[in-house]
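Aim 2 progress. For DUF4829 domain-containing protein, the working sequence is reproduced below.
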Amino acid sequence: MKKRTLLKFIITILIFVIILFFVIFIYKSSKYNRYYTYYDLLSSKQTVENSFKYKNSKEEKKLYSLYSDDLANAIKNGLDNIKKININDVSFIQDDHLYSGYLGSGLGSINNTQRKDLIIYEVSYEVEYYDDSTEPLENGNQISTYFLVKNNGKWIITDIGYY
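Predicted structure tokens for this construct:
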């Protein structure tokens, strides 16, 4: 009889812990921003990280699938000149002025992008070119702003701003 009571107690505690876990997970998801789910932030950041990974490995098809058509054509030109490129940090930007600028007078105004479908990251990275005289940036540490738009449920990079 005592074993049965102990088993019920353990099951009750496990159910409570599972419910508590889901409540905390949902709370943390909504805490990030009123526009995004935790999955949105995770998958969009992964898109940025994969773009650097595919630049290093020269996996062109995979790389170009992460960008809008216009931007994919632009990065094709400089891909062969990249010797190596590594991310130092990817930071989610929450500055409403930057979002308003993109949506009001940037590409977002042309493409009718909605706020919930735009995520912006500041990316710190180190790049080494074979010949940096042909590039807009020099070898070394750089910081760029990556603009991602949700397109058919997938986050793609539509613009990159350089400091």
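The first helix runs from residue 2 to 32. This observation will guide construct design in the next reporting period.
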